[in-house]
Amino acid sequence: MVTTPITAASPTGSSYTGPIIDTDVHETISSWKHLAPYLGEPWRGLLERGAWTKPGAPFAYWASHGVNRADSFPDSGAPAGSNYELFKAQVLDLYPIKYAILTGQFMPGIMEMQFEFASALASAYNDWLFEHWLQKDERILTSIHVAPQDPQAAVREIERLGDHPRVVQIILPIAQLAYGDPFYHPIFEAAQRHNLVIGLHHSSFVKGAMGRGRYYIEWHVNVPQGAMSLLTSLVCNGVFDKYPNLKFNIIESGWSWLPHLLWRFDQNYRSLQQEIPWVKRLPSEHILERVKFSTQPTEDFDAQTWLRLIELLGTDRLFVFATDYPHWDFDAPNEAIPRGLPAALKSRIFYENARELYGLEQARSV
C-alpha cells in the first residue's frame, strides 16, 4: 500500500492552503410538504394533511439550537441546511471547497413500517434535490437516497439515477440494519455496477451494546459501536469478497477506534475462519483497502497523536475531510485538522483521498 512519508512536524508548521473536498454536507428541505408534488396517492395526501412530518429523534439535543449551529437558520425561519445561499456563504465560498457532497438529513432507511412509503419518499426527495440543489452550483455533488428495507425498490432507484454525472454515492443509515445480510446484497450489486460509493452515515437510531442509555451523551459517545458492528457484518457476510470493486465511506462515526477493531478482527479471523470460509483475506486488508472514514467528529487530537494513529494503521489513505454542516459540532477546515501535520498529509486528508474514493478529476500536483 502506498503511503505518504510522514516526518515529524513542528506545532508551528505551515497551514494547508490547497483545495478541499467536503464529504459530508447535510442539506435539507424547508418543508416536507414540498415533496407532495413528487408523490402519487396515497402518499401525497399524508404529507398535504400533515399526517407525516419525518421520523423523530428519540432524544432531545442539549445544544441551544437543537442539532444545528445557531447561525445556520435562514431568516425566513426555515430549517437549518435548507437554504443554498446561506450554505454557499458559510461553507462553499468561505473555504476553498472544490466539491461538496450532499448526504442529507433525510433517512428513509430508519422507517420501521410502510416500506413502500419509505421508497416513494426517497425517490421524491431525490427528484426535489436534483431540481433545487444540483442546478445551483457545479461544486455540489450528491448521494442517492434509498430505502434499504425494500432492496428491490432501492435497486430501481439506483438504476434510475445512478449514471447521473453529479451522483457519486448511495447513502445508507447506520441504524438497526445489518447490511451484511444477503437480503441487502442487491443494493451493493447495483452500486458496484454504477461505480458508486456506499456512504454509511450514523443515525439517531444507532444503539450501543446496552441500548441507547438514559442520556443523550451516552448515545453520542457510543455512536462508533454502530460503525464497528456494521463493518463486522459486511466483512463476515462476504460483501467485500462478493463485490471486489465496491468502496465504502463511514461518515460521522469517528475512526480512533479502528486500530483496536482491526487487531481484534484479524485475531478472531485466524482462529475462526472456518466459520466464514467465503472470506478469503484478513478483515484488516479488506477494510484498509476499501473503506474511508470521515474526519468529523475526530477527537481533539494534537498533531503527534494523529501521526501515531496513522503509524498504527500503516496508511494515510483512510481519512476524508467533512464539515458536518450545519450541525452544532461543525468542523471548520482551518480549525479541525492540527496545524502541525505535514503538508502532504493535509493534502491527503482534505482532498486526495476523497478525490480517489469518488473517482473525481486527475490528481493535482502537491
Account of the 3D structure:
The structure is a single chain. It is built from 12 helices and 8 strands. With 366 residues, the chain is an alpha/beta fold. It has an 8-stranded parallel sheet. The longest helix has 21 residues. It starts with 19 loop residues before the first strand and ends in a 9-residue tail after the last helix. The model has no long low-confidence stretch (mean pLDDT 90).
Overview in brief:
The chain has 366 residues and is an alpha/beta fold. It contains twelve helices and eight strands. The mean pLDDT is 90.
Say how many strands there are. Answer: 8
* Helix run count: 12
Helical/strand content category: alpha/beta
CA-based shape: globular
The stretches of 5 or more residues where confidence is low (pLDDT under 50) are none
- What composes the largest sheet? 8 strands, parallel
Mean pLDDT: 90
Please give the oligomerization state of what you see: single chain
Radius of gyration: 20 Å
Which CATH class applies here? Alpha Beta
Q: Specify the CATH architecture.
A: Alpha-Beta Barrel
CATH-derived topology: TIM Barrel
Count of folded domains: 1
CATH superfamily: Metal-dependent hydrolases
**Terminal Cα span:** 19 Å
Spatial strand arrangement across the major sheet: 1-2-3-4-5-6-7-8
Helix share of residues?
Answer: 25-40%
Strand content: 5-15%
**Element-level helix/strand string:** EHHEHEHEHEHHEHHEHEHH
